[in-house]
């Protein structure tokens, strides 16, 4: 499949007489997709039942007529003001119980039945009108579920729905009391209607209660999305997409993705490094205008898994954004590099956000491909360059030699009970991912219910709170190498410590007898590096691969199945993963800082995230540059 470039466009922001010129310029730039409509509800239905679709008909005609393929968004992330008058209790509530008011976006509670009915109504109208429109070749449902902390809602609607959910899951209050361990602190319930949401408690609520609420909240997103997907499916064969966000873990993206055809995510590398990644200040400064060298790749690999092979970047940062604490401009070359990196990881399309910078409202400081005066912004020339280069390069994906399991429920488990202030599941997985990439490896990400683990020479399962049986079988199969832990198989689904004690891996005589979290600076020397943040004491007779200087086991194994009893720093992870790769027959090539590699079936791509050229094995890759070779 030949990948494509596109752009996000808001016809409702501009006079009709510029649409044609905009469309022509998009096509001239080599763009083929245009996403529209996802925030336009107030212009489609200015008051209840007053439908004004003519302008959208025309916009689609103009864009489609120019040769662009339209992605049409459902506008449900931005309920208009009248919706609130009609459904005053539709707002989500924060953990303090305060309603999250009108005046920006995503002001709805996923559990509000009245709002869900309104969404069904508007999506039905759109699907009936545009489901067979030849220009509408894909649909985006809603926009960035979970953005602005909107998955968890402590509203009355959420409370009612949670009680129902508990009644269905546990069947009787007694069963729920047993599952949660409510005998502790006299927390027993006699009726499902007594169960509140786990906020505003005097001190920490029962982790089983919180975990149940997290599972429920994730399922509400899945249901909300499914309601729209089912309607669209009745009216169109075009693929259904959602645009997820980076490092948003509050709902299970694999579950939402199961109802869709293509996963996409919104990639803002510089904003993320500043705002969303935990990294030392010198790292943030070094990559200030480029973004973290692994963050984009990680999400590309994650969303390739969420989309079961089909994925896009729906929004690509083109210049400074407006929402991070600081918003530097990308180095020249980065708008090209980011697009190529996505294609190397298998993206079918990369759409820049947005076409023209809006001179009004919240995002007036957010760059586009055009300036507010319609002159070219710097990224436009880079987009044109990518479009031209794409004509000469066809590639296809191939399976990576190494995989990491990623599990949203584990993120909830360790947020619910971190035990150490800096124990973040995302960081643990991301650290391992980075270490693999620094060894020059391409990596696949797999969901926890995968059947594919056995296809990889090496599989990592760090921090996986509960190991599903099927995965456990695959990981302990001696024909390939696996690294489980730390903190894997450490909880039951109801957030208790399992019996027998973790990790309880078939054939591995090892039990975690005690865990400790370690504050910054309290590092335990091991080999070339340290264990930091988290350390588990192991008992049992399993063979040791690595021990602390004081002789405590750090890595033990049975055949090719290894268990890691702590959080390794970069140096220790590099040492350990090199050994395991060797054992697994995976070739590694340590890379200079900021240089990363991605192999496809046909090419090896090099991405230089540094502000200076890098020479590696005789080839020089320019600053903020991309280089590819036939494999
Ligand atoms: C995304 C969002 C867009 C726009 C963009 C700005 O999170 O989907 O609508 O707000 O960020 O960077």
From TrEMBL:
A GO-annotated cellular component: beta-galactosidase complex
Molecular function terms from GO: beta-galactosidase activity; metal ion binding
Key word Methyltransferase present: no
Source superkingdom: Bacteria
Active site per UniProt: 144, 315
One Gene Ontology term from the biological process aspect of the record: carbohydrate metabolic process
Residues that hold Zn(2+) according to the record: 109
Record keywords, A-Z: Glycosidase, Hydrolase, Metal-binding, Zinc
Catalytic activity, reaction form: Hydrolysis of terminal non-reducing beta-D-galactose residues in beta-D-galactosides
EC number: 3.2.1.23
Family, per entry: Belongs to the glycosyl hydrolase 42 family.
Name of the molecule in the record: Beta-galactosidase
Lineage: Bacteria, Pseudomonadati, Pseudomonadota, Alphaproteobacteria, Rhodobacterales
């Amino acid at each position: 499949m030949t990948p494509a470039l596109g752009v996000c466009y808001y016809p409702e922001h501009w006079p009709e007489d510029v649409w044609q010129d905009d469309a022509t310029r998009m096509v001239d730039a080599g763009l083929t997709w245009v996403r529209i409509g996802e925030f336009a509800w107030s212009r489609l239905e200015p008051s209840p039942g007053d439908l004004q679709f003519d302008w959208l008909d025309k916009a689609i005609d103009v864009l489609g007529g120019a040769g662009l393929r339209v992605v049409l968004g459902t506008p449900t992330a931005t309920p208009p003001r009248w919706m609130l008058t009609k459904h005053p209790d539709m707002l989500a509530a924060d953990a303090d119980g305060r309603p999250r008011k009108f005046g920006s976006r995503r002001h709805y509670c996923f559990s509000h039945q009245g709002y869900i009915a309104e969404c069904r109504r508007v999506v039905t109208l759109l699907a009936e009108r545009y489901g067979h429109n030849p220009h509408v070749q894909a649909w985006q449902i809603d926009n960035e579920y979970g953005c602005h902390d909107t998955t968890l809602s402590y509203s009355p609607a959420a409370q009612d729905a949670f009680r129902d959910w508990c009644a269905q899951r546990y069947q009787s209050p007694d069963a729920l009391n047993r599952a949660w361990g409510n005998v502790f602190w006299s927390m027993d319930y006699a009726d499902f209607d007594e169960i509140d949401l786990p906020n505003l408690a005097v001190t920490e609520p029962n982790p089983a209660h919180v975990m149940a609420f997290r599972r429920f909240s994730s399922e509400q997103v899945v249901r909300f999305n499914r309601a729209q997907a089912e309607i669209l499916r009745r009216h169109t064969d075009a693929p259904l997409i959602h645009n997820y966000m980076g490092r948003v873990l509050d709902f299970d993206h694999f579950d939402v993705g199961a109802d869709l055809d293509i996963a996409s995510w919104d990639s803002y590398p510089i904003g993320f490094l500043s705002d969303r990644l935990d990294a030392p200040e010198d790292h943030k400064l070094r990559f200030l205008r480029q973004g973290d060298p692994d963050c984009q790749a990680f999400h590309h690999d994650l969303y390739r898994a969420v989309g079961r092979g089909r994925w896009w970047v729906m929004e690509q940062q083109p210049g400074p954004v407006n929402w991070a604490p600081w918003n530097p401009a990308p180095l020249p070359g980065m708008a090209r590099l980011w697009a190529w990196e996505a294609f190397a990881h298998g993206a079918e399309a990369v759409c820049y956000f947005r076409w023209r910078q809006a001179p009004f409202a919240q995002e007036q400081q957010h760059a586009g491909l055009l300036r507010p005066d319609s002159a070219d912004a710097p990224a436009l020339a880079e987009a044109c360059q990518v479009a031209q280069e794409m004509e000469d390069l066809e590639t296809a994906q191939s399976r990576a030699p190494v995989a990491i399991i990623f599990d949203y429920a584990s993120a909830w488990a360790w947020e619910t009970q971190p035990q150490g202030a800096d124990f973040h599941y995302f960081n643990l997985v991301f650290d391992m991912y980075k270490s693999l990439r620094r060894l020059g490896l391409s990596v696949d990400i797999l969901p926890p219910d995968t059947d594919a683990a056995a296809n990889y020479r090496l599989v990592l399962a760090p921090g996986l709170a509960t190991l599903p049986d099927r995965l456990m079988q695959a990981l302990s199969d001696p024909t390939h190498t696996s690294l489980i832990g730390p903190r894997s198989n450490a909880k039951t689904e109801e957030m208790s410590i399992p019996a027998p004690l973790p990790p309880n891996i078939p054939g591995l005589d090892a039990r975690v007898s005690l865990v400790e979290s370690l504050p910054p600076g309290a590092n335990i020397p091991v080999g070339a590096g340290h264990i930091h943040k988290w350390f588990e004491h192991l008992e049992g007779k399993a063979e040791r691969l690595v021990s602390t200087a004081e002789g405590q086991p750090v890595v033990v194994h049975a055949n090719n199945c290894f268990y890691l009893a702590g959080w390794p720093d970069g140096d220790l992870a590099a040492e350990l993963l090199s050994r395991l790769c060797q054992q697994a027959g995976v070739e590694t090539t340590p890379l200079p800082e900021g240089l990363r590699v991605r192999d496809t079936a046909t090419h090896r791509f090099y991405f230089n995230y540094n502000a200076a050229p890098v020479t590696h094995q005789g080839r020089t890759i320019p600053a903020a540059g991309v280089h590819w070779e036939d494999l």
